[in-house]
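AMP-dependent synthetase
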Amino acid sequence: MANTATSMEAMIHNITPEARQFIEEWNNSHDYIIAHTSGSTGKPKEIRLLKSDMRLSAEATCRYFGIGPESRLVLPLSPGYIAGKMMIVRALISGAELWIEEPSMSPLKRDYGIVGLLPVVPSQVTELLQSPYITGVRNLIVGGGALDPETEQKLAACHLKAYATYGMTETCSHVALRDITAGDEHFHALPGISFKTDERECLVIEAPHYSFRSLTTNDTVELIDNSRFRWKGRYDNVINSGGVKLHPEEIEKKLSRFIDRPFYIAGRPSKLWGEEAVLYIEGCDIDRDYIMEKARSVLDRYSVPKDVIAIPNFSRTDSGKIKRL
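Predicted structure tokens:
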């Protein structure tokens, strides 16, 4: 079995240089590891994550999904990002078997038998749904961006448990999960985590056992109770149009039913409204009349974009997230 290593009783297969570097960093004498934020809301920054926090996060996920020494995990994401690092930590602390794949659009390249946990990003889901090996996946977690409703429905029809994750590098991966399979629209806190909101209606993560204790985010939410919330969008992205607050991510979810290429909603200055919503779409051959007709059919009059602007190629972060103008 090539490129196989045992570390803290975990069997890790196909170790890449990036994964090996992280394992060496995890086993060194420092109490922290170096990580970088995704850069989706600004320039990526270097941060230090305490290994004790990463261990707490990994233990919570392992308990939630019942991961132990008998489990098999698959990692099709780069260990250079927090999602990849945390899958390795989960294997190390649980003793689970971990198979590492080179990151690609096809996140399940072979039959691994029963897979206890598989993490993916939205761009990998389409090919995953076509994989003959998906029937072996027991739990799927999707992070790094939102899925469109149609893709969520396809995942819900599979014989696996699929979850959307909420978290960030600073929280050592996810702190809440939303059950896609059950059609749930609320994120539920992992054990040891609770929520509240600030005066902006932005989420505040309460984590008394972690070193950061409390973390205020820029995500606007509808708080259901201290363990559940519905995500609405980024506070940074909110468009104040004529006194009406528009959440681009909510508009995008409705428009994604009929727009089959990358797009996003953003605000621009308006003499009449202060700000107005504009739809930016990737490509050149755009049918603006069709898009506007469909938008008027699914959106209220305040949310309908005032313009459609085609951009040949969007700028993206290293992890594939679109950089909004």
